[in-house]
Amino acid sequence: MALLYADKNFPQPVVEALRQLGHDVQTLQEIGKAGQRMLDEAILHDASSQNRTVLTYNRKHFIHLHKEQPDHAGIIVCTVDQNFQSLTNRIDAAFRAKSQLSGQLIRVHRPNFQ
Fold it and tell me: Tens of pLDDT along 42-93?
């Protein structure tokens, strides 16, 4: 099981499916921070302070943040995929392939992504 922190634009169906697989997923909407226009740096800091891995579609900014601030609880960047079950399965498989997420940048791409 992973402790996750879903970014503001991450799809709720994937959040729910990850929860059904036993992952503890917190969303910005559920903790009342969605309307605060949090900067990505603040999201990463907030997630790391709770030992949660950020789950995001915002690949460009979070890859950059990982390079600048490698001391975090983990970042998972995903390509947009409307097949939510497939995306959920790839995220879950990515967790299972890692012994620890702290300081890791994990890329989860949809099939046939260039």
Answer: 999 999 999 999 999 999 999 999 999 999 999 999 999 999 999 999 999 9
- Any long-range contacts for 108-114 (C-beta under 8 Å, 24+ apart)? 108/76, 108/77, 108/78, 108/79, 109/78, 109/79, 110/79, 110/80, 110/81, 110/83, 110/86, 111/86, 113/79
Q: What is the pTM of this model?
A: 0.90
Measure the CA–CA gap between 10 and 112, rounded to whole angstroms: 21
User: What residue type is 7 in one-letter code?
Assistant: D
